[in-house]
Amino acid sequence: MTIANNIAAFREAKGWARPELAKRMDTTPQQVERLEKGQRGLTTDWIEKAARALGVPVGDIITPGAAGTAAASGEDYHPAPDILPTRNASADDGTAEIISLNLALSMGPGTLIEEMIEEETVRWDIGLLRSLTRTPFQHIRQVRGVGDSMEPTLRTADRILIDTSERTLTRMHGIYWIDHFGAHGLKRLRAAGQGRIVISSDNKVAGGPDFEVDADELRIHGRAIGTWREL
C-alpha cells in the first residue's frame, strides 16, 4: 500500500525542487521521489534524514496533515494549534471563503486542462467544513464534476470540495482529482502493490472496468472531501 507522508508538502513549502532535498539528504532525486510517493518503505533512518534536511520534528514527517499547516510563505514550520487558521473567515456569519475554480472535472475519460482559472470565492459554512476536514481553508478548492461514471456518488454539476493538501494516496478507495498524462478527472483510487495504483469508477456501465497504472504516471491534485448538489 502507498504510504502517505508529508515530505513533499514540506519540500514545496520551502520552495525546493527534489534535487535540492536529495542533496541535503545525501541521496538521489529519484529516491526522494519514491519516498514522497510511498514507493519505498519509510524506515526510521529515512524519516530522520528527511526531518534533519527539512528542519522539522521527526514526528511531523509521518503525521497526516501536519504539512498542510506549514506557512505558505516558506517560514519555519510550527505545529498547528487546535483551532486552525481560516482564509478570510467571517466571524459575523460563521462562513469561510473557498476558491472556486473555473473548471469542470471529468468523471469519464478525462478533461484536458490548459489553464486553471480562479473563478471567484464562494462561502461555505465553517461548521460544515470542519466536519469534513481540519485542513486550513486556503488548501480547499471547489470544482464541478461532469459525466456519469461516478454515479451515484457524484453527479454532473455537483459542487465538489477538494482538499489539495492530500497529494498522495491517503485513503483506500478514496475519490481523488487526478491527472493521468494530462487528462484530469475525479476517480476512485486504491493501491495495487509496489508502485501501482488502480483507477476505478463507481458506475461500471458508464466508466468501464478498473485499470492499473504506474504511480509515476499519475499526479494527484487532491482528495474529494464533500459535495453539494441542487435539487
Distance between the termini: 38 Å
Helix-residue proportion: 10-25%
Shape by Cα distribution: globular
Please tally the β strands and state the result.
10
Query: What do we call the CATH homologous superfamily of the largest domain?
Result: Umud Fragment, subunit A
- Poorly predicted parts: 64-91
Total helices: the number is 7
Structural class: alpha+beta
CATH class of the largest domain: Mainly Beta
What is the total number of structural domains? 2
How would you state the average pLDDT, rounded? 77
Biggest sheet descriptor = 10 strands, mixed
What is the CATH fold-level name of the largest domain? Umud Fragment, subunit A
Strand content: 25-35%
- Could you tell me the radius of gyration in angstroms? 18 Å
Q: What is the string of SSEs from the N terminus onward?
A: HHHHHEEEHEEEEEHEE
Protein name: Phage repressor
Pfam family, one: HTH_31
InterPro entries: Cro/C1-type_HTH (IPR001387), Lambda_DNA-bd_dom_sf (IPR010982), LexA-like (IPR039418), LexA/Signal_pep-like_sf (IPR036286), Pept_S26A_signal_pept_1_Ser-AS (IPR019756), Peptidase_S24_S26A/B/C (IPR015927)
Domain HTH cro/C1-type: 7-61
